[in-house]
Amino acid sequence: MLGSIGQRGLWVLLIALLGVGPVWAQETPSEPAPLPQETELYPPFDDGLPQQTFDSVELLSLAANNNTELNALRDSWEIALATLPQIEGLPDPVLTAQYAQIPGFANPQFIHRGYVQVGVTQKLNGYGKVPAREAVAELEVKVRHKLYEERLNGLFTEIQKNLVELYNVESQIQIKRKHQFMIDHLIRVANVKYSVGKGAQPDVVMAQTERTKFESELSELWGQRKKILLSLRYLTGSDELPEGRAPVPDWPHEVELTKENLLKTAEQYRPQLWALRAQIEKAEARIRLAETEDNPDITLALMSRWFQYQPDGLMLTVSVPLPFFNKQRYHSAVVEKEREKEKAQALLEEAREKIELGLGRQLVEVETALDQYEITENTLLVQARQLFRGSLKSYETGEYDFSSLILAQHTLLNIELALVKYRTRSSLAVAEIEGLTGLRMVATYPLPKEGLN
Question: Using CA atoms, how far apart are residues 133 and 138, in angstroms rounded to an integer?
Fold first, then answer.
């Protein structure tokens, strides 16, 4: 028995000396081993996209200077503004000059003698017409101004939506470039395993096929990016855009998105509603103007007659039309302007209904996309990454076949693309909401601000 104990002690001592593990290490305190750190699946790489980021406000500034449709609306607004001071002015006076000879049978004393008659005629506007015309002209300026702002708001919404679509395409490019980078790694692993007899040639062929698929899909995505940049060039009216990539959209939950608040915001900031309210006011002003049309205009004429370079007489004439036979025409004009007011009111109500319907739809889209994003990010993405990491390690050790590894990679790829899709959907909905309310345009672009009437 002693011999067996001695042999056991000899074996323990031999194991300790060979470095397999010191028996007394359990009695000596030591620092715990560090926990394995979670590392990224893909190291940093060049995605081929520009480093600069597009700024939506700078793009809107380009559009404000170069977009032809916007320039036409601005010119129309400035023309109406320039004609406003002319409303108060009187019509141009009319100068008349006459020369005549008096025949002998009319006045023998001045036979074969002629006379010259010079006159000036001035028309004066009827009572109440000038203030009514001024009101119509001022409201016309306001309508054209708000139509210009509405087009600017529409351009900003289209620019934002194009930037979101650009973000969607560029994010897909980045994701597929990362997976292409991983495929390159798998090709190297498959070649090494095949060279040592632990892999099959179909694994290498499958990996190369997957890489070719990524190259084809990336080529299509780069084409889509060029189309979006062409759309931005058209919207801004610029021949060349600066190099840039899409900014990352803001998260919708950072903004207070309630239907009631958004409807109030639209009433305060949406230029279309301002323009329609101004149309109603202009229709009312035109009704008042039509009611003054039967107020007669007064025409003054001053004439001077000269005989043989000597003044012979001065005559003042006052002309006033008598609106006895056109009462029905004036009444028809008033009725026509009342119909225009009713039409403007109907258009305003229709615009409000469309805004309310659009806000309801976009809020549902935002809520649905955010829920899908949260579920995918917190559950499916974590599981897909763990599955892919485990599949990659198992394939490298020979426990997994290559088809199962590719399937795990496709699962992770589809989930990452789904996250981009949900974020794109929510960001597009937010851009539509901003366009429906007009809030972002007023808050970020230097335009005249007015309070509610």
Answer: 9
